[in-house]
Amino acid sequence: MRRADRLFEIVQFLRGGRLLTAQALAERLEVSKRTIYRDLAQLQGCGVPIEGEAGVGYVLASDYHVPPLTFTADEIASLVLGARMVRAWAGDDLAQAAQEALIKIDAVIPEGMRSLIDDTQMFAMSFSGSSIERSSLDALRKACKERCFLDMTYVSLEGEGSTRRVRPLGLYFWGRVWTLLAWCEIRADFRSFRVDRIKTMKQADHCFPVEAGRELKDYVAKMKAKHGIDAHGQPIKTDSQSSSCK
């Protein structure tokens, strides 16, 4: 989580009117107490009326109001288009969340800018995406989040069927096609699977551990190395090659 996002979350937690200790905030935000103390000091230095002390707890002054969000016309257009794309191409759960997000955005932007939501003349049309595929996206997103093994049957582009046990790591949208990036236990390597070619899948009862070399960040690093770019965006030379995905 970015520090700016964390500062915003701290303010939201403290608006509840109850004393919250630095330890409680640290547990909610998954950071150290030292980090929370630094964040609180920064907020107080910026004029946010946070009351309290270490060992007792903190609370936001009851008469403090967070200023309303402000967006430029282009920012509103990008949010609207993004929500429309999610509604058209993502799973049912995220499609519903995108619609609710637009309602919230409409509620917080200035009155004079609300017409920009309806006037955004950019659209995302869904040419495919059956209800089965949408539900698959919801299930796959859940499996990625919970880090649970998946047992699935898959049909390749050549029509060959196979049974796989995978560690789902992330979902990628390529324009009309979604793929699941996963670590394949059978191939012992990263593989990409088209979601529309996954015929059956079942989430296992147990989750997979964090393991170096088999995580999403490892795949990203591997692709950067393969294409000659390091983690800082600088050209590098490498002899490593990534196996092709099927």
UniProtKB/TrEMBL annotation:
Keyword Transcription: yes
SUPFAM superfamilies from the UniProt entry: Winged helix' DNA-binding domain (SSF46785)
Organism: Cohaesibacter celericrescens
Keywords of the record: DNA-binding, Transcription, Transcription regulation
Example GO molecular function: DNA binding
One matching Pfam family: HTH_11
UniProt domain HTH deoR-type: residue ranges: 3-58
Name by which UniProt lists this protein: DNA-binding transcriptional regulator
InterPro entries: CBASS_pafABC_assoc_protein, DeoR_HTH, HTH_11, WH-like_DNA-bd_sf, WH_DNA-bd_sf, WYL_dom
